[in-house]
Amino acid sequence: MPNIYNMHEAKTQFSKLVEKARLGEEVIVAKAGKPIVKLIAVAPDNLLRKPGSARGMFSLSDDFDAPLPDDVLDEFYK
């Protein structure tokens, strides 16, 4: 269940709410009782994609880039 804070409370406790979001809690800020924003953490750099990390996990056939048969190509133009 998300934690909902009113605008005034969010302004006075902003640093605390940012830390909660960084730790994975769902933090929602509301105005007049209506949710308006959700604080979420930015993914750390170590979770970003690393090129080549799937090397050896799959293979392509020698003809993977060969032209498609005419009957298959015709389906694209219908």
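The record above closes out task 2.4. Task 2.5 opens with a second protein, given below.
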Amino acid sequence: MKRLRVLLAGLGVAALLVGFVVWRVDRPQRRLTAHFTEAVGVFVGSDVRVLGVRVGEVTAVVPQGSTVRVDMRYDADVDIPADAQVVIVPPSVVSDRYVQLTPGYTDGAVLADGADLPTSRTVVPLEIDDVYQALNDLSQALGPNGANASGALSDLVATARANLQGNGEALHDTIGGLSDALSTVADGRNDLFDTLGNLADLTSALAASDQQVRDFNARLADVGSQLAAERDDLAAAVRTLGTALNDIRTFLDENREALVSNVDGLADITGVLVSQQQALMEVLDVAPLALSNLALSYNPSSGTLDTRDDVMGPYDPASYACSLMVDVVPVQQIPQTCFDLARLLDKRGLALTDQLRKLLGAAAGSTGTGSGATGVTDAPDGTLGGILKGGQ
């Protein structure tokens, strides 16, 4: 019974293996050929991977002169970039290597089925024998039959030892300072790059304005030549200026109090001018017109000024006289004629002084003042003569 179970299990595993092989054979695949300078550790059946995931296998490894042709096949549903490379990857010291297609596909053109990649698109790992050979070549190049044939390398090592002996702390501080400096430069790299960009812009602007810069330099050279030709005159002018400044200093020392007093007085004058700024502006505005009118009023035939007095303004002599009385005597002593005049002017809508308006207000509270007359005459005499007669 136990043997039967083992036999059945073996048959089941065999069936699974056969099914897997059939599935792998029937699954659509693409072919790829790559040429390597060498293919150590790559055999038929070695994995073909993308990003470490097995997608196919090596089907043939054939030497061809100085290169090795490696045929591969991989799953058709795996897209490979058209510019992909083929790399032999050694996962460990043991020669169990696989072929990697890199990089992984993201977008763009896809590698065609049956593509043939030259050695420029393949990479092989560095073998341990190559590393040992490189170290051996280096040691021989630096040995007694190479760079140290005359003892130069030994002298270099001895000199470096002598110079570094006892300077470990200084060397440590130097390296630390250099590290800090590089850190500072790294922290300010944006500003540094901006400065370099600005310098590039400046040099570009200067290059674009090359002719103008040349003209400026030429004119500057001309100015320098002219100053050099007149250096004696410039020296004499500087000496004279020195003498003048010395005289000015002596004058200031001798007249210090007077200058202080004059400056104080000038401050008072300027203060008055500032306080009367508006009046001065009005004078400056009106004075030219007044002088022009004065020149035009001169009568050369009679040698006089032809003017018209307008002291009373728009008011007649009677209004002027009554207005004067209102300002100098009590209202009770003003003649009735002035009250009548104020009423008449107001009735006819003529110009009234403030004093006559005051009389109108006083007349509104009484029927008469002064001489005891009442009422308003129909046609009062508003002239100076009428006013005088009415006062009699």
